[in-house]
Design brief:
A hairpin with a 5-residue loop joins strand 10 and strand 11 (432-439). The protein has helices spanning 12-39, 46-55, 63-74, 96-99, 135-174, 188-245, 251-282, 295-312, 332-348, 407-417, and strands at 78-84, 87-91, 103-111, 117-124, 291-294, 316-319, 327-330, 355-362, 366-373, 421-426, 432-439. The chain starts with 11 loop residues before the first helix and ends in a 5-residue tail after the last strand. The strands form 3 sheets. The chain has a 5-stranded mixed beta sheet. A 4-stranded antiparallel beta sheet has the order 2-1-4-3, covered by helices on one side. The protein has 444 residues and is of the alpha+beta class. Helix 8 runs parallel beside helix 9 (332-348).
Length: 444
């Protein structure tokens, strides 16, 4: 996978414009430089010859100096004629103009008075001679080809190679392989495509990881469900077979078998109800039937409906004074189920003679309620997982207390479906506290 590079990028249009500029400028500059330094366009030693002859006027009549100077500038196609008072002292060629076509003559006066000294400097218009002209097209063509090769290499390295790697990455993703490498590029469009592929690869890898985790959780879920359903079914079948085969041979024993079978059937019904509610909320994603309702009245009704179970355990169930305007918009059936699950959980984990109470308060944007108990509380290690499906703590929540471990999960999903939430913790008295929030109705 390609990581994002911190290199500067340019749009492909700017790179193409730079390539066209380089294609023109580089051959012209190189050819001009070669022509100036090798072929000799320009001065080609004329200034040097001019200065040397001018400063050596006292040696014009020296044959050694004459021959040495002639040989020095002969290779540069420079001839000269020395004249004093109209008389030619020395000339490098019998007729410089006729014998060297294309040469230009310059008259340089050294001394205008007596003796009047001057010289004529003959040089080619093109310092290296016309015979060297073939070098410039060759240099220009070679430079053009080298520039084209450089541009082709650059485009291949920054455009074609990354695009080819992107195609390979696409085929790798299609084959399910998310481990691929895409080279970096200075072309902005290509870099953005590569970054998109890298981001897509990370997202796919994360999605596959989450999918694997969900699949693992599903297997555990199904295994736990099968176990929880099998336990009451086996017990129920055993007691029914005992009744059928006559193991229960007295009226008292038959009555006891029937009561146990009824308890197991009730437990099985609770399990199936929890599974149905969880499946409906988790997988069918059923939207709540929203209507305006007084949440305080709903809390009171649910507390009244759970009071017989609390009294059976000698648990005191109370509702703190409720504020006015506890109005929310929600599904009465689902919200009642959530509150019922919280109360069942609180009563189940509160010892005989304990206390369960409900509090509610109204905030500017929220209706916040709490269900508290005087049980053993929730271990700190269990708090992050308390709402996970099928989670049971080692002591406070186990299979002997009943339920499949979905009651709190269902309650939280219901609250979240109403754009609220449910949190768990322990209050100062040591028991558990579950705090739910629901958005207030905008009309209140």
């Amino acid at each position: 996978m390609n990581g994002k590079a911190g290199r500067r990028t340019l749009p492909i249009r700017k790179w193409l414009a730079l390539a066209l500029i380089a294609l023109v400028v580089i051959p012209v500059c190189v050819t001009g430089g070669v022509a100036f330094h090798i072929v000799g366009i320009g001065d080609n030693g004329q200034s040097e010859a001019n200065n040397e002859i001018r400063t050596s006027v006292d040696r014009w009549g020296d044959p050694e100096w004459q021959q040495a100077t002639k040989q020095k500038y002969a290779g540069r196609s420079i001839d000269f004629v020395l004249v004093e008072n109209g008389r030619t002292i020395f000339q490098t060629s019998d007729d410089p103009l006729n014998n060297n076509s294309g040469k230009l003559a310059r008259e340089i006066v050294v001394s205008p008075s007596n003796p009047r000294q001057l010289f004529y400097l003959y040089s080619s218009q093109y310092g290296g001679g016309r015979a060297n002209f073939w070098i410039m097209p060759l240099v220009g063509l070679s430079t053009l080809l080298l520039t084209l090769a450089g541009i082709a290499w650059f485009l291949g390295h920054t455009l074609l190679r990354p695009l080819a790697a992107t195609g390979e990455a696409a085929r790798a993703i299609a084959d399910g392989n998310l481990e691929f490498e895409i080279p970096t590029s200075r072309v902005r469009e290509v870099a953005e495509v590569n970054d998109a592929f890298g981001t897509m690869s990370d997202a796919l890898r994360e999605s596959l990881s989450e999918q694997a985790a969900v699949e693992q959780e599903r297997r555990i879920f199904i295994s736990a469900i099968v176990h929880d359903l099998r336990t009451p079914v086996f017990a129920l079948r055993g007691y029914l077979e005992g009744l059928q085969t006559g193991v229960a041979d007295t009226a008292e024993k038959r009555q006891r078998y029937v009561e146990i079978a009824q308890d197991k059937a009730a437990a099985l019904e609770r399990l199936i109800t929890d599974l149905f509610e969880f499946t409906r909320l988790e997988y069918l994603e059923q939207a709540p039937n929203r209507e305006l309702l007084d949440f305080g009245i709903l809390l009171t009704r649910q507390a009244d409906s759970m009071r017989p179970q609390a009294e059976a355990k000698e648990v005191q169930l109370t509702v703190a004074p409720l504020p006015d305007n506890c109005t929310v918009v929600g599904d009465p059936h689902l919200l009642s189920r959530a509150v019922e699950n919280l109360l069942v959980n609180a009563i189940r984990h509160t010892p005989n003679g304990g206390h369960v109470w409900i509090e509610c308060r109204v905030e500017p944007l929220w209706v916040r309620f709490s269900v508290c108990d005087t049980g053993a509380g929730i271990p700190e290690a269990d708090l992050p997982r308390i709402f996970n499906p099928l989670f049971r703590g080692e002591q406070s929540r186990n299979r002997r207390t009943g339920g499949v471990g979905l009651g709190l999960t269902i309650a939280r999903r219901i609250m979240q479906a109403h754009e609220g939430d449910l949190a768990a913790g322990n209050h100062s008295g040591g028991g558990a506290i579950f705090t739910g929030t629901l958005p207030r109705s905008r009309g209140t």
